[in-house]
Amino acid sequence: MRLPVRTRLALLAGGMAGGLSRAARRGNGTTISGRVALVLDPQALSRLARGRRSAVVSGTNGKTTTTRLLAEALRTHGMVAHNDRGANMPTGLVACLARDVDAPLAALEVDEPWLPTVVAAVDPRVVVLLNLSRDQLDRVGEVALLAHRWRAALAVPRSGSVVVANADDPHVAWAAMGADRVAWVAAGQAWRADSVLCPACSRLLARVGQEYSCRCGFRRPQVGWRLVDDPGRDGGDAGTYVRDPDGRKHRLDLSLPGRVNQSNALIAVAAAAQMGVAVDEAAAAMARVREIAGRYARVDLAGRALRLLLAKNPAGWAVALDLLRPPAECPTVVVAVNARAADGRDPSWLWDVPFEALGGRHVLVAGDRRADVAVRLAYAGVELEIVDGGVAEAARRLGPGSLVDVLANYTAFDDALAAAGGRGTASTPAASTPDAHHG
Amino acid sequence: MAEQTVGRLDPRPGDRLRLVSVYPELLGTYGDRGNVLVLAARARARGVEVEVVEVAPLAPVPSQGDLYVLGGGEDAAQSSAVAALAEDGGLAAAAASGAVLLAVCAGVQMLGERFVAGGADVPGLGIIDATSTRMPRRAVGELVVEADPGLHVPLLSGYENHGGGTTRGPLAEPLGRVVRGAGNGEGTEGVRQGRVYGTYLHGPVLARNAAFADHLLGLVLGTLAPLDDTLPERLRRERLTAVLGSAAG
Ligand SMILES: [Zn+2]
Questions:
Q1: Residue in B28, B38, B58 nearest the CB of A379
Q2: Ranges A137-146, A166-175, B176-185: which has the least confidence
Q3: Do A437 and B74 touch (CB under 8 A)?
Q4: Residues 355-394 of chain A whose Cβ lies under 8 A from any Cβ of chain B
Q5: CA dist list (Å): A294 to A301, A319, A409, A422
Q6: What DSSP string runs through A150-203?
Q7: Which of A183, A129, A122, A136 lies closest to A151 in space, CA to CA?
Q8: Tens digit of pLDDT for each residue in A44-102?
Q9: How near does any CA of chain A get to the CA of B156, in Å?
Q10: Higher-confidence position of A41 and B91
Q11: A137 to chain B: nearest residue by CA?
Q12: Are A439 and B5 within 8 A, CB to CB?
């Protein structure tokens, strides 16, 4: 790729800074090298993206998984720049694109507030919008605001670009409706508590099943892409299929567990199709993915086998509880919660999570905020035991043998992964910026 | 070493609690659902039959409840909710007939005469003698409150996250005095007027402060048998220590 001298110098300086940072063992250097490059050349992101066919993926939950699945599909057509280290702000994107300067394709996970900036700079072929729900409680209030910002950004006409949007999430649908071309996907909504009001006019949304509508005229769009479960009674193979807008069915066999990942794959397949990857080809590539940045992976910690599930917000926890193996297989579960800057300082969200689902299991409670979790579980009638420490200390309390599921939030998950000898998920969300438009 | 916090006593026949959760889907930003879960669990642990009524967003509010919980919400939710509650009248009727109300955060502002939401001055329900305006800075962080001695509860711990401050009129007393944090914005925290209680403490407040939960339940049910509160007490002390240091109690 031909880059202007200024950009090349900026990258060179950034690369050196990244090397020093790695040498000093202060993270993997991704973010700092991108930061240096952007300071020296503010246009570095758009210059690095020019000439590539890019897809950007954003949303509160599932963006790391969906971007990875999409990257695997695109890889069947050529080299792909992919920010798989989780650094999803402009600095991280610059570092990612600079690492793979010659990749003609890019699959980029983008932090929700940064989506407008990144879309303007990268000019992506495809913008994938997953969902919007409350994340860090000390940033809440941004859900409606984010939808407004997304809508404004997507309303800017860009030739040859398409938005691939989850029609089941009203905020996402409203944001995407601002765009010229939209491919609508029924990617589900695990969490409705943040979309009770109409994003267009703030009236109460009427809901029937997956459908929603408002007196102002806003309603769920007609969906082109959906999942179909075939019980196999009509002679076909039982299983889950992707149904494309032409009504054709394509088998979807994932190694990743749960409906939520089938939904992530569905929207990734729809996005890959916009970039010319055939559905069956994309689905086959996605089927080979077994873990996402340590998530769902089986790790060994203190001689015990653990399966790590990450949940960062109430919607994510509801999904993660669904992914637990049944109590007969997994009678003991570890729940680890921190409330550090990257997690959000306020764990009130614990009361929004349906922890009653843990009834009948024995729960080891760990993490900095174990006392908060213990009170929540006690009131939910769940049998619990407090472990003084994190996931590693909990692992030492487990008997040898069977695989134990671990549910952890952001930094508790990173700590567990680090203790198991894996690397952390690298990126740290921006320090919480309390927003001033609610309460 | 499984721990049991909420013990069970034999039911006292005839004891019944109607617990009304107002618009939980709209007004539930800060885990407000937790206050309802805690009240219900603590009443049931005393053998009281509990009926939890969750009022769907903007649906009529029954006026025959014993204890009402009103949570926090974003500006749009708060404005929609207060308009519906004013038109419906059920909550005001319940308060007038002596029901116990607990309002948290945006809920406090809605119960007052006026508040600010989305940059506009919005009329409140006028159930308490208080007015809320924007504070110069948003209050976010741990909040510690020394409750009014009449409440007979130890130091209250919670988390606050609000842009509005509240000024009481002559009919309303504060819930207590701020030890750490912002509260109402002028040294006091919360509002108390008859059997109506408002607070900026969440976390949720009753999960962290079992004695305050029992104070509210006691207003309806009378004297309550003690429960094993090892876990909530551990949480309360841990949060107080995190804010105040080891001298906390
Ligand atoms: Zn509307």
A1: B38
A2: A137-146
A3: yes
A4: 362, 371-372, 374-376, 378-380, 383-386
A5: 13, 17, 13, 7
A6: HHHHHTS--TT-EEEEETTSHHHHHHHTTSS-EEEE----S--TT-SB-TTT-S
A7: A129
A8: 899 999 999 999 999 999 999 999 999 999 999 999 999 998 899 999 999 999 999 99
A9: 15
A10: B91
A11: B30
A12: no
Contacts of A352 in chain B (CB under 8 A): 28, 31, 33
Q: Range with the lowest mean pLDDT among A17-26, A226-235, A378-387, A393-402?
A: A17-26
Is the distance from CB of B116 to CB of B102 less than 8 angstroms?
no
pLDDT (tens digit per residue) in A13-33: 776 454 444 444 444 556 777
CA of A208 to the centre of ligand 1 (A): 16
- Domains of chain B, by residue range, sit at 10-244
pTM for the whole thing?
Answer: 0.86
- Residues A125-169 pLDDT 10s: 999 999 998 886 555 457 888 999 999 999 998 989 999 999 999
Q: Dihedral sign for Cα B130, B135, B138, B142, please.
A: negative
For ligand 1, the distance from its centroid to the CA atom of residue A211, given in whole angstroms, is: 14
> In angstroms, how far is CA A142 from the centroid of its own chain?
17
* CB-defined contacts A:B, below 8 A: 127
> What is the structure's pLDDT at B249?
54
What is d(CA A166, CA A184) in angstroms, rounded to the nearest whole number? 6
Residue A172 CA to ligand 1 center (angstroms) comes to 14
Whether the per-residue pLDDT at B56 is higher than 80: the answer is yes
pLDDT category at B119 given cuts 50, 70, 90 is: confident
Q: For A250, which DSSP code?
A: E
Beta bridge partners of A54: A106
Would you list the DSSP string of A365-417? EESTTHHHHHHHHHHTT-EEEE-SSSHHHHHHHSPSSS-EEEEE-HHHHHHHH
A433 touching B (Cβ < 8 Å): no
Q: What is the pLDDT of residues A304-330, one digit of tens each?
A: 999 999 998 888 999 999 999 999 999
- Tokens 């009281």, residue? B48
Which chain B residues in 79-98 lie under 8 Å from chain A, judged by CB atoms? Answer: 79-80
With contact defined as beta carbons under 8 Å apart, do B129 and B114 qualify? Answer: no
Structural domains of chain A sorted by starting position, each given as residue range(s) with its CATH number in brackets:
5-286 (3.40.1190.10), 298-419 (3.90.190.20)
**Is domain B10-244 annotated with CATH 2.30.33.40?**
no
Å between B180 CA and nearest CA of chain A: 16
Question: Helix, strand, coil % (nearest 5) of chain A?
Answer: 40, 20, 45
pLDDT in the model for residue B21: 97
In A235-346, DSSP assigns E strands to 239-243, 249-251, 298-301, 304-310, 332-336
pLDDT in tens, A233-291: 777 788 999 999 999 999 999 999 999 999 999 999 999 999 999 999 999 999 999 98
CB spacing of A375 vs B140 below 8 angstroms: no
First to last CA, chain B: 26
End-to-end CA distance of chain A: 50
Give the β-pairing of B67-70 and B16-22: parallel
Is B105 among the residues known to form the active site? yes
